[in-house]
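Action item from last week, closing it out:
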Amino acid sequence: MRLSILDFQTPAGALELAPAADRLGYHRYWLGEHHSQYQCANPLLLATVLAGLTGRIRVGTGGVCLSYNNAYRVAEDARLASYLFPGRLDLGVAPGLGYPPALLAALSGTEGEGGEGGAAAPASSFEGRAAALHQYVTGRLPGGHPLAGTELYLEPGPPVWILGTSPASARLAARLGAGLCLSLHHSPSEAAARATAAEYAAAFSPSPEFPEPATIAVVSGVCADETSVAAAVAAEIAARAAAGGGPGTGGRPAFAGNPGDCAAALAGLARRLAVDELMILDFIAGQWDRRLRMYELLAGALDLGGG
């Protein structure tokens, strides 16, 4: 089973954790897009920096929020990153969060539109934006497209992954021939995740990037040397989330325990979901030593083969 990391915390922390993950044998290191004071606002930019600081691990976005990003510009940036670090980048995309109208307007470039407050909403759906992005990244523009025949920037970019939990996300990923990343930290129902993954696999259309269906499941959790310590950290995370939290907060972790218990829990989850890759999202905010120790313990327990 492959094990990867999704990081929602500070960019400064990523500069230390990504090289550690590379050394420990993790398969991917993805970054979320969050427009808060201390989190990463541009995961594709930071992923490119991390590619330069690592030598093996795949880096990418989990994900670029298309509700307030220009699909063509994202594609150009992704093509540049992939050109600089061939075979090392992933481009995960998601709809985006429900930010306040003024911030959404600023992010989407619609300030001053839509009346008082300048809160004009983006015109197209996530499905439409994702399909357009996929065309620009791959260079496979359909006949009649306004840019058909135009030389696009550099060469085709990294593989595209659709992030979500819904059947609509599964159908979109399957139609595009893209990868599917199931965000179990948003919707922790295993039954729903299994159904979504099965629908994706059944409807999948092969592509040059993905000859076969590819599914990753994201799960949050805590691993520590001692079960009691992991349980205490998990309780802290749940309490912080219930109180409204801050950067790096989430709900109660899906697993918590010592390395052996966590390895068994993750292997069981991968088996039940029929996926061969899990991505760990930790909400251990502001505790660098504890975060690093967690990933060291998981790498050892699951024999990732790192140094």
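Closing note: The longest helix spans residues 227-242.
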